[in-house]
Design a protein that fits this description.
The complex is a heterodimer.
Chain A: H1 4-10, H2 14-25, H3 29-38, E1 46-52, H4 58-71, E2 83-89, E3 98-100, E4 115-121, H5 133-142, E5 147-151, H6 162-165, E6 168-173, E7 194-197, H7 205-222, H8 234-237, E8 257-259, H9 268-284, H10 287-315, H11 320-329, H12 335-349
Parallel strand pairs in A: 1-5, 1-6, 2-4, 2-5, 6-7, 7-8
Chain B: E1 7-11, H1 20-31, E2 35-38, H2 45-55, E3 59-64, H3 69-82, E4 89-94, H4 101-106, E5 111-113, H5 119-129
Parallel strand pairs in B: 1-2, 1-3, 3-4, 4-5
Helix pairs in contact in B: 1-5, 2-3
Classes of the chains: A alpha/beta, B alpha/beta.
């Protein structure tokens, strides 16, 4: 029972793709039904995340990568691929509005029939993506886009949702952003499958590369098996004492560190090669399957949380929440007890 | 928990490089709670319409100071119609002589805001006139 919009998306109709993404962002029931119908057609695209601090050149890099994928070429020769791009920018916590400016750096891609670009505001999500991002990927996937780039908001240290959303994550760095202690901190650097040091024509590029090399050398000494599928569990469990192996001898993937000057189209081909090599590795090593499982587990978890919350709040009488908040602020009630009351009420209904 | 947001494309068609006005309006629309897709300078009518399709916008705001509005705006409106985007609200700003206003309104540009327009005026016009949602 496919609705009209589902048929149009499957046929690659760009307006239908755009409209369905809007419906997903607005969280409507019709969007959920359409996603259910599209789901069997998803799982084909290679999803590539691009993350990094604001101003490191993420949008410019995505622009260049998309050009290479559209053009084909390379050694060995590739055929042109269709490219979907989802570019996320932050929503203002004050007004709820947003300026979505990533298209500015992608003007060369305009009019290319094999490229679809969608800008998306975070609308309150904190992990570097929007709530609707994962579902928008499914829409582009079902519409036949073969490579989907997901550009996160300018990310600092903790916005790591992209690691469980993408198959391949590129962390973009630029020279001069911090010393080598920054490189051994936890967070965003741990999720990279590929590093690019962009703006590599600037002073300090070699230092940035060296700091990342050091990070990776330490990584391979202390926990050879760590990667995305274990993003949360890894902290506790991955300490293999006997791992004096050289990186090349290990099973895992050592993230390459690539210098680029995206503004002048330099070094881009090597990044595309690394993306392709990573996909081959994912497939060969069964990591793709593990990551898919981890992603789906997380997605199901998120959906359950949202749905349960929605159900709970739909049962709460108007003003009841305000009353509780007021009583908590008066110290008549503590927040845990207030939450328990709301939940017990829900259970009585069930 | 549905949350509908007005999405507006702010574009600078043509060759003039003055985008301060466009940035001011983009910022004001953001502060009014809208999602503003800002595409930057030197947009062709084709680029504007393509972006409007992909971004599924409710409104398009174009700013032009070069005097080419009577060439570029009709092409944008024609392309919008050809692509079935008749339900998108189109407004324009910049330097547009009063003599040209009736012709532009005839072709479907709903609001024309010259220099001195307050940002509140533009915001309330868009809020009142978006057709969808």
């Amino acid at each position: 029972m496919s609705s009209d919009i589902v048929k149009r998306v499957l046929a690659g109709d760009r307006r239908a793709v755009a409209r369905l993404i809007t419906m997903i962002e607005n969280n409507g029931d019709e969007a959920r039904r359409a996603l259910a119908d599209l789901y069997p057609y998803t799982g084909q695209a290679h999803v590539v995340g691009v993350t990094g601090a604001p101003g490191t050149g993420k949008s410019t890099l995505v622009n260049e990568l998309a050009k290479v994928y559209r053009g084909g070429g390379g050694q060995p020769a590739r055929s042109p691929r269709t490219v979907g791009i989802i570019a996320v920018d932050p929503t203002s916590p004050f007004s709820g509005g947003a300026i979505l400016g990533d298209r500015i750096r992608m003007r060369e891609l305009s009019g290319n029939p094999g490229i679809f670009i969608r800008s998306m505001a975070t609308r309150g999500s904190l992990g570097g993506l929007a709530r609707a991002t994962a579902d928008a990927i499914k829409v582009l996937d079902a519409a036949g886009y073969q490579v989907i780039f997901v550009e996160t908001v300018g990310a600092g240290q903790a916005e790591v949702d992209i690691a469980t959303t993408a198959h391949t994550t590129i962390v973009v760095q630029a020279p001069g952003l911090g010393d080598d202690i920054q490189a051994i901190k936890a967070g965003i650097l741990e999720i990279a499958d590929i590093f690019t040091v962009n703006k590599a024509d600037r002073e300090g590029a070699d230092n940035a590369v060296m700091a990342l090399q050091m990070l990776l050398d330490l990584d391979h000494v202390s926990r050879p098996a760590l990667h995305h599928s274990m993003v949360m569990e890894a902290e506790v469990s991955c300490n293999e004492p006997d791992s004096g192996l050289a990186p090349s001898q290990e099973q895992g993937w050592r993230p390459p560190i690539l210098k680029t000057v995206a503004l002048h189209s330099q070094g881009i081909e090597a990044v595309v090669e690394a993306i392709e090599a990573h996909l081959v590795y994912l497939k060969k090593s069964q990591t793709l399957y593990q990551r898919e499982r981890a992603r789906i587990e997380r997605e199901l978890n998120d959906i359950l949380q949202q749905e349960l919350m929605r159900r709970l709040l739909s049962r709460v009488r108007e003003g009841e929440l305000d009353d509780l908040i007021e009583r908590i602020s008066q110290r008549e009630l503590d927040p845990y007890s207030a939450a328990r009351r709301l939940i017990e009420k829900e259970e009585r209904f069930a | 928990m549905t949350e509908k947001k007005i999405r507006v494309l702010v574009a600078k068609p043509g060759l003039d490089g003055h985008d301060r006005g466009a940035k001011v309006i983009a910022r004001a629309l953001r502060d009014a709670g809208m999602e503003v897709i800002y595409t930057g300078l030197r947009q062709t009518p084709e680029m504007i319409v393509e972006a409007a399709i992909q971004e599924d916008v409710d409104a398009i705001g174009m700013s032009i100071l070069s005097g080419a509005h009577m060439t570029l705006f009709p092409r944008v409106m024609k392309l919008l119609a050809e692509n079935g985007l008749d339900d998108v609200l189109v407004v324009a700003g910049g330097i547009i002589p009063d003599d040209d206003v009736p012709a532009l309104k005839d072709m479907g540009i709903a609001g024309i805001f010259g220099p001195g327009t307050s940002t509140e005026e533009a915001i309330s016009f868009i809020k009142k006139n978006v057709r969808r949602k």
